[in-house]
Amino acid sequence: MAHAPESGLPEAVDRPWHALAADAALAALRATRDGLSTDEAGRRLAQHGPNVLERKAGVSAAGLIWRQIDNPLIWVLIGSAVVALLVDPADGTQNGLVILAVVLVNTIIGFAQEYKAGKAIESLSAMVPQFATVARDGRRVQVPVAELVPGDVVFLQSGDKVPADMRLIQLRSLQIEEAALTGESVPVDKTTDPVADEASLGDRRSMAFGGSLVSCGTGLGVVTTTGNGTELGRINTMLSQTTALQTPLSIALRKIGVMLTAGIAAISVVILCVGTARAVWEGGVDLPTGLRESVIFAITLAVGAIPEGLPAIVTIALAIGVQRMAARRAVVRKLPSVETLGSTTVICSDKTGTLTRNEMTVQALYLPQSGEYHLEGAGYAPVGGLLHEGRPLVSAPDDVLVLLRAGVLCSDSTLEQKDGRWQITGDPTEGALVAAAAKCGIDAPDTRARHARLDAIPFESINQFMATLHDGYAEDRRIIIKGAPEVVLARCANVDPAPAVHQVEAFARQGMRVLGFAHKWLDRAALAMEDCAAGFEFIGLQAMIDPPRAEVIEAIGACHRAGITVKMITGDHRGTAQAIGEQLGIARAGEQAVTGVELAGMDQAALRRIVRQHNVFARVAPEHKLGLVQALQANGEVAAMTGDGVNDAPALKQANIGVAMGITGTSVAKEAADIVLIDDDFTSIAAAVEEGRRVYDNLIKSLAFVLPTNLGLALILIYAVAFFPLVGKTVDGQVVQDLLLPMLPTQLLWINLVAAVALALPLAFEAREPDVMSRPPRDPQEPVLNRFVLFRTGMAAILMSVGAIGLFLWRYDVEMAARAITGLTQAQIVSEAQTMAVTTVILFQVFYMLSCRSLRDSVFSIGLFSNKAVFVGIGAVLGLQALFIYAPPLQAVFSTFPLTPQSLLLSALVGAVILPAIALEKSVRRRHRARAAAATNRRRPAAK
Length: 944
Known about the structure:
Elements: H1 22-28, H2 38-48, H3 61-69, H4 72-87, H5 89-114, H6 120-125, E1 131-136, E2 139-144, E3 153-157, E4 165-177, H7 179-182, E5 188-189, E6 207-208, E7 213-225, H8 231-241, H9 248-281, H10 287-305, H11 310-327, E8 330-332, H12 337-342, E9 346-349, H13 351-355, E10 361-367, E11 371-375, E12 386-388, E13 391-393, H14 398-409, E14 414-418, E15 421-425, H15 428-439, H16 444-450, E16 453-460, E17 465-470, E18 477-483, H17 485-489, H18 497-509, E19 513-522, E20 537-545, H19 552-561, E21 565-569, H20 574-584, E22 594-595, H21 596-600, H22 604-613, E23 616-618, H23 622-634, E24 639-643, H24 649-654, E25 657-661, H25 667-672, E26 675-677, H26 683-723, E27 726-731, E28 734-739, H27 745-760, H28 787-822, H29 826-852, H30 859-862, H31 868-886, H32 888-894, H33 901-911, H34 914-939
Parallel strand pairs: 9-21, 9-24, 21-23, 22-23, 24-25, 25-26
Antiparallel strand pairs: 1-2, 1-3, 3-7, 4-5, 4-6, 4-7, 8-26, 10-11, 10-20, 11-12, 12-13, 14-15, 16-17, 17-18, 18-19, 19-20, 27-28
């Protein structure tokens, strides 16, 4: 037998194989239909490498830990702890260890959040089979898929996964399921004939692509590319090169961290200088001693000004959003994605399985005598009535039953219910025929039993029809033919083809796939090709489509009302995409779908322009989907991408947020996505957007609550260093004057971590604002620290600092004046005044949190008891504060002193001052908004 020449393969093997004739492809690959020799295959394996997908190593556990530590605020805390331990080993050890414990807790939380990294590339490798049947040395053998090389001749049969990209050179009734790669909703009929050079991936019918599934027939193909050179490999490469983008919230929080770090560092230097100067000039200590004491002040300022609890608040608030979204059938794989949904401006959706059911459905029938009929229902469920001229029919006419029975008999698919869901076994197109018949009471197994199949001519792309022979009739045996309408009509003598052709064109404009049916009698039990040449009686047409999900139309409408644009990006045909886009309200009036071929010829500027002007894109390849998402992002959009196929994975990963389908989605798509929809329901996306906006609103409430505490603590310490009196302190047997601390570092950590977190978290449970889905998306460029947050932070911080400083000084002066009576030492008096200042801040936070439940209106407008978590948080904080004040173990750790009831009452009264102040501020802002709205209405021209 002849073998391929023993001369290896040229390096340049990348060419349009689909456009070459089969023999030309073999010649270019220096192969024959008998396959390669073992020696030649070995040489090519050494030249081209194994047929495997390259894997990119993920982030190690150590890398994830470093990512949590490499944060400006964390470095300030670590530096503060180290300085405390080195400068003042005696008193600073406790402070330093507590600060380091805070860093450890934050690191653990962040590490746990990111530990489950995406494994999309590993999932891709699972799509490639382990062994393939090839021709080697003129014999049919099985070899490991990894050893396939260009030029290998591979045998394919039903049920096989295609092991590499190959040019088909011989086939019989070969159909391949490519939905995961191209978005094509039905198996593709393959051919050995070359196709146009510029054909899109889904139109390259002379090719079989690695990772796709043979659903019917047999074939022989010559391998053209292996490994990362295949279409699956190209997706793998795009996936490995695509980097997940930071979310708007993470970017904003990092900016806040940098700003706070710079501000804290600057103020700490000032504090260090002022404190040292006062200690030396007013206290009479030497420079090293004054510097050491001032360092403790600077550390205290750093600890007080840093919102240590903010990472935990954000993480837990997002986790609460995750739980709420899970209850709405959306599983979040990456925590920050919850917030990103709230700022989404564009949703790019795949069609097949996302906007549509991925279940072919017969929606219309055409009978030559009685005209057009419509079938209700969608999907494979045999539920739905029959309509004629808009009127429901109690029973199907005889000619309709004949047409539907023909669809059952001239097909092989079966329909059954599994786990409450109707599923088909076999070809989706034939499954649609069986489901349509069931809607009109035709039982497929019973019909097939009464009219047993005697013979069949399988569908082949060269013939464009399938024929079956049946008995069980009163007369002779009957041939039923099913296929392309023009092919079937050409074999019929009883009908004027013009009306039928006109109807086919009308169905096609609606994006439907049309099959024609005809029958005739035969007087023998065997079927030959010449029996199918002519003499048939035309029965009618069945038109089907992968229908839109009924609930998707309302979900898209909700997205439009929320200011979100929905775009459909699919690998399906232009006509189908256009029709579905119009039905769903995605396509604008008069808008035509843009194809992948058109996109391929555009530069970046044209791509950015076209993606603004059009909403439906058809026949696109994976790189086109990725390019469209990148163009949207270049236009400043926050893009969400939904999909279920392997071809969607690179775009899912590139998008600001990727949403995969849980039922029909491939493992590759799920691993690349940020969110997985359990029920494959597009409506869950609208619900997720709503939840994302609620989460962001509540995070802003948490920020508006937490930041005033840190600024207020910083103001308290700055005032203390500049204006507090110096107090006597014994150092090495000598009494020296030292700066008076209103709060210790450990007490500041108590405020920032325990109290602030326990009070901020209930805000994450607040219900959504009434207008959450009727306002435009949040501008991702809008700073989190907007004018409102900054003003509210400044106002609340000033009120808190004035109250805490006033009570501290009052309690210190009163007790110092009465210490001859009370017998308290100066250290005890300072501890009591510090405890009262901390308690004032805590109670201030309790009242301020009630005001933050609604940023615009009174707490009574949303219902005082609408969020029971608020009162749980308040109860927890009051209980913890009681332990902080009165429990001996906590007194030892935090240097606190028990307060009298009168002191507690006074702290509560001072803390409550924030309530009328915030109420006045809200009232002023409401009046300002009302005046602005009235002015806008006056400027708006009257409607004509």
